[in-house]
Amino acid sequence: MNERVMIARLADHPEAIPLLKQWFESEWKSYYGPTGPGNAERDLLAYSGRDRLPIGIVAYLDGELCGFAALKPQSITTHSHLSPWVAAGMVAPQHRRKGIGAQMLSALEDIARGLGYTRIYSGTSAADGLLRRSGWQIMERVAYNGEDVSIYEKAL
After folding, report:
1. Average pLDDT over residues 122-132
2. Spatial separation of the C-alpha atoms in residues 75 and 71, rounded to whole Å
3. Residue 145 vs residues 21, 78, 130, 135: alpha-carbon distances, Å
4. For 34, which of 21, 69, 113, 135 is 20 to 30 Å away at the CA?
């Protein structure tokens, strides 16, 4: 397989924001869609930090944008005492199951470690397998915004 993955900070790739905006609006319609409360472009611009949270990262596979994830100070509002959080992770459907999500997760762990954090958290209803394979431990399952969400932590 000749495919190469490059992970970089969104701050270094602002040209990705228009496509990511479309992805956010498609992937999370109830939040970022036309009747949702979210603003994908505003959030993506907020994820353009370099040295403080929130920090977004992008993944490119052989030069094609294929993924995004973020490290943010808060995510699950019922657990605001925990920080930082891996959130907004997505890989384009045609590039899933190639290890890109795991590479982005590892990159966010490295960023958190570099910022001095000793623990990291994630709330998910879809990425349990990825988090478990990457050494994360489940803390609890909660009902959050009408979904069953698993909250994970990892010591760094």
Report:
1. 90
2. 9
3. 22, 10, 22, 26
4. 69
In this prediction, residue 80 has a pLDDT band, given cuts at 50, 70 and 90, of very high
Q: Give residue 94's identity as a one-letter amino acid code.
A: Q
Q: How far apart are the first and last CA of the chain?
A: 31
User: Which pLDDT value is given to residue 1?
Assistant: 45
From residue 103, alpha-carbon distances to 78, 100, 136 in Å are: 28, 5, 14
Give the residue carrying structure tokens 């490290």.
71
What pLDDT is attached to residue 3?
Answer: 66
141, two tokens? 């399952």
Domain 5-155 has CATH 3.20.20.70: no
Omega before residue 73 within 30° of 0, cis? no
Per-residue confidence (pLDDT) for residue 11, from 0 to 100: 97
The single-letter DSSP state of residue 1 is -
